[in-house]
């Protein structure tokens, strides 16, 4: 046994009697064990013992084969984590759909109540309700961002402008003991991104840096052009080669311990105390960056700070000047019949009330099949169909296809509380538009106007 201990190092001595019993009974013993390597790290070993007998069938020796499976264990853990995240993403999608159906009527009802009252106290309370509903919608988007990747409309934007906005906001919220710095390349490329989500990434990193510097320090945002090489691409799964914009967020805080740095992107993992963190911040950052086709790296040393490097694929074409649209009164109808198909009673009630308030004549259906029957009966009068995409029974995509069979030029506004990602239905300018729940009244009325047949606009 001392010789075996020399071979194995400090392991549970109880394993040896067990191994010897198995050898004498079954001529073999296999077990996965943990060993302490010379550098102090833990290694996983699969140890296989085989009893070798002589010509008289008497035990002669023991053949030991030890296989280091540490890397395989790590890959297995990554696979299990990925499968767990897939399950969480599916669950989050269902929760988001339900919550967005709850928030949609709240937002629309608040707008209608604000129009119908002049009482200052009532308006103040309605403003609080509206703000809380928007906050709830933002939380839903954050959960989806970490679980399913980035969502939302994207356009060509200059990262410098987003960083300037985030830094301006951080200056109002961070302690004065923290110094904010910025550094940009003069000819910084643009990226194809969602401005709100990019801001969310930078804000999350900024808040984490604040928490890592309770006594003050330096928080620095920088951005420069960077060409990703094949070697860097190979060492970062999912990365693309070619031109990128590299955004770096660094601090001089407490840093991240080496034993935790591989866990910081796990959902719900947090080192903050109870009530001070959800563990979704860095998971959200990773989801958004990957959803934009980018990747990230992190470097950190305890007591010397952390540096997050975010790589976003660049767009080398010239950016178009933004089109400035003057604010106008919300579009109204003139008695046009609008078919509303949604399985949520609250959504049907509030959307119907909104349409009536703005001059339309709503016709309501509680599911896709009922909607098709009503459309068939009133087809000449119905100008636009507003339909939910996720309903019991006939789904929104099926409803749209059936409507197109009955009337190829049918005008449609499709609503969904989650991404329209599994359907072959695509937007058609002037004929079919998608709206993400929760939407407000202005968004719905504008979409309605955009698909209304010209003869009745």
Note down, in words, how this protein is organized:
With 457 residues, this protein is an alpha/beta fold. It has helices at 2-8, 15-26, 70-116, 120-148, 159-173, 195-212, 230-234, 281-291, 345-357, 368-378, 396-406, 441-451; strands at residues 28-36, 42-53, 59-68, 155-157, 178-184, 190-193, 217-228, 242-251, 295-301, 305-315, 337-341, 361-365, 382-388, 411-416, 432-436. Strands 4, 5, 6, 7, 8, 9 and 10 form a seven-stranded mixed beta sheet that branches. The termini are far apart.
Keywords:
457 residues; alpha/beta; 5-stranded parallel beta sheet; 15 strands; 42% helix; extended
How does the SSE layout of this entry go?
Elements: H1 2-8, H2 15-26, E1 28-36, E2 42-53, E3 59-68, H3 70-116, H4 120-148, E4 155-157, H5 159-173, E5 178-184, E6 190-193, H6 195-212, E7 217-228, H7 230-234, E8 242-251, H8 281-291, E9 295-301, E10 305-315, E11 337-341, H9 345-357, E12 361-365, H10 368-378, E13 382-388, H11 396-406, E14 411-416, E15 432-436, H12 441-451
Parallel strand pairs: 5-7, 11-12, 11-13, 13-14, 14-15
Antiparallel strand pairs: 1-2, 2-3, 4-6, 6-10, 7-8, 8-10, 9-10
Helix pairs in contact: 3-4, 3-9, 4-8, 5-6, 6-8, 10-11
